[in-house]
UniProtKB/TrEMBL annotation:
InterPro entries xref list: PPIase_FKBP_N, PPIase_FKBP_N_sf
Any one GO biological process: protein folding
Listed name of the protein: Peptidyl-prolyl cis-trans isomerase FKBP-type N-terminal domain-containing protein
Domain Peptidyl-prolyl cis-trans isomerase FKBP-type N-terminal: 45-142
Listed Pfam families: FKBP_N
Length: 155
């Protein structure tokens, strides 16, 4: 992976991590309060709920919650609030860096697999009757030709 790709990936991951930790803060409050449901009677409660739901939807969409033990995550947040961390800062940074690298490796593998499947599809598709492949790799199929000698839609 190029340095530029890693840099872009790290920026994206930092943004995603911020969103993820925001969601966790919300989760912690519900775990620590033991609430099974929330009261959404006033505007401030609806705003808070909507922000939390939006962050949660973003985390799900970005697939940042896969493989994370929520109870241990919440325990880490509560320990941070009480200033009673079980790991040293360097250990935590190493763990987070390892997680980010695993995620980047998984993303790179998925990209490689998708590129391989795309190339296979294009190769098979180029063998179909009537498919034209340009030098650029663009493929097209003329479904219906206009009349012979007819006017072209472009000059």
């Amino acid at each position: 992976m190029s340095n530029e790709s890693k840099e872009i990936g790290m920026k994206t991951l930092k943004h995603a991590t911020l969103v993820f930790f925001s969601l966790v803060a919300l989760l912690i409050s519900f775990y620590s309060l033991g609430q099974d449901s929330v009261d959404l009677e006033d505007e401030d409660e609806r705003i808070a709920y909507s922000l939390g739901a939006n962050i949660g939807q973003n985390l799900v969409a970005q697939e940042l919650i896969e493989g994370i033990d929520v109870q241990i995550f919440v325990a880490g947040m509560l320990d941070a609030f009480s200033d009673d961390l079980k790991l040293q800062p360097a250990e935590m940074m190493a763990a987070i860096q390892n997680y980010m690298e695993r995620q980047a490796d998984a993303d790179q593998l998925a990209l490689s697999e998708n590129l391989t499947m795309s190339a296979e599809f294009l190769e098979q598709n180029s063998q179909n009757d009537g498919v034209v492949t340009l030098d650029s790799g663009l493929q097209y199929l003329v479904l219906e030709s206009g009349p012979e000698g007819g006017a072209s839609p472009t000059p």
